[in-house]
Specification:
mainly alpha; about 65% helix; Putative motility protein; YjfB_motility
Length: about 60
């Protein structure tokens, strides 16, 4: 095998590994941005009203019906 073919094979493998590592890093950044966006949406929700129902409502489930 010639040196030039070994060099080109090594260069191609190195380029493929670099492309894969870059893709993983971009995916990681995208997931971080998505998590921050979801957290911001959750924090933007208004609080639930606490006094809308009487205190005895919703405490029991009728399972005999």
């Amino acid at each position: 095998m010639e040196i030039s073919s070994l060099t080109s094979a090594f260069t191609a493998a190195t380029a493929a590994q670099l492309a894969m590592e870059t893709s993983v890093q971009v995916l990681d950044k995208a997931l971080d941005v998505q998590a921050l966006s979801a957290l911001a949406l959750i924090e933007a929700l208004p609080p639930l009203p606490s006094g809308a129902n009487p205190p005895n409502l919703g405490n029991f489930i009728d399972t005999t019906a």
